[in-house]
Amino acid sequence: MNKQYNLKEIFSNSKFFKEFDDTDFKLLEDTVEWKAIAKGEYLFKEGDEYNGFFLLCDGDIEIVKGNGNGDSETLAVLSEGEIFGELALFLSAKKRVASARGKTDGTCCFFPLKVFEHLLAEDNITAHRIVLSISRTLSKRLEHMNQELIKLMMTRNEACKPVNKYDLKKFKDQLLASWSF
What's the CATH superfamily of 7-179? Predict the structure, then answer.
């Protein structure tokens, strides 16, 4: 990786790290791994063991999920400053439920699960700030999905068609998939 990155600057420009201080930045600088990603390359694939989460430093990442027919659907396109792959911190299965691939060339900071778990076990304040930030991110995603559900239900009501089990299952699948960056 030729380009030099200022981790504090990258973190300061990310909504995710807005409440972190210099002590947090120093600790994270010593623990993150830099990962370059090429367009079309996968950082992880659906079904892979969970090993940590990412902050996108530059470029764009597509979050994709297999649709069961051998194809995949793009769930989201993420850009600089966004985190992804964080949901598995809270899941017992510890498997990736979607894939992440480069939409463009880019760079990510990788936060290894083992390091994060060690910091939590030590009751480290930085680890607690990460959990709080992830919780806020997930809450915002849930709020967005609730709004989408309301739109879906209102559209069905306006068309005088009841919401059927298939629509609700499809929505639930989309909801779970969109949370699992």
Answer: Jelly Rolls (2.60.120.10)
